[in-house]
Design goal:
With 214 residues, this protein is α/β, with parallel strands linked by helices. The chain folds into two domains: 134 residues, Alpha/Beta hydrolase fold, catalytic domain (Rossmann fold, 3-Layer(aba) Sandwich), CATH 3.40.50.1820; 67 residues, no CATH class. It has six helices and six strands, in the order ββββαβαβαααα. Strand 5, helix 2 and strand 6 form a beta-alpha-beta unit.
Length: 214
């Protein structure tokens, strides 16, 4: 006997664009589908917990090029229009005539611009903790500025490669937003668990560093 309340299985798609291959997850359901657009520096996994709760809607989550399981962009210089082209490619490849765009963080401007330029393709627009325009007083959080500015790339890479520095950066950002860095369900504790798990696996498999033979 089938369980009618069960959540449909998610299908993965490889959407080909002129700039590279996009990874897209697609959970079957009712139209119009919800297109989940992630912010910076996240990927579509940011929606893993909420995705199943959006049934009976069809839910499509996109990894922008250069994020998650999508390919790096083949275009060196990024332009705001690139995300609009990627979004159009997803809608066309999945035969979606009209959709509800759900945009978080840095994808907000992309969704707004797409809705303004392609109003017949957008049923509703849902904006989550985002912004729009070029206000002089607009200041991004320190972590986003660190990861987004090419001039800081060596420093950012060094901090992200070090478990302690990475953890400090996440916890500092949590405090800046008034969050509890010790929240057992927060990202800081998740990073600690991940580091401990990797350390135990390394010890169990003997994959630690060894001196090269002379």
């Amino acid at each position: 006997m089938s369980n009618s309340s069960s959540v449909p299985a998610t299908v993965s798609h490889d959407v080909i664009t002129a700039m590279g291959h996009l990874h897209v997850t697609d959970r079957p359901g009712d139209a119009p589908p919800l297109i989940l657009l992630h912010g910076f520096p996240d990927d579509s996994k940011a929606y893993d917990r909420i995705g199943p709760l959006l049934a009976p809607h069809r839910v499509v989550a996109v990894d922008w090029l250069g994020y998650g399981q999508s390919e790096p962009s083949a275009v060196a210089d990024f332009a705001a229009s690139h995300h609009q082209h990627q979004l159009m490619a997803v809608l066309d490849a999945l035969n979606i005539g009209q959709a509800t765009l759900v945009a978080h963080d840095a994808s907000g401007p992309d969704a707004i611009d797409f809705a303004a330029s392609q109003p017949k393709r957008v049923d509703h627009l849902v904006l989550l903790n985002t912004y729009y325009g070029h206000a002089r007083t607009l200041r991004f959080p320190e972590m986003i500025r660190l990861l987004a500015d090419p001039a800081f790339k060596p420093l950012a890479n060094a901090m992200l490669d070090d478990t302690n520095q990475r953890l400090w950066l996440v916890m500092h950002t949590a405090r800046m937003f008034g969050l509890d860095p010790d929240d057992p369900d927060g990202v800081g504790v998740a990073l600690i668990k991940e580091a401990v798990t990797k350390s135990r696996l390394s010890s169990a498999t003997g994959s630690g560093r060894h001196a090269a033979p002379q």
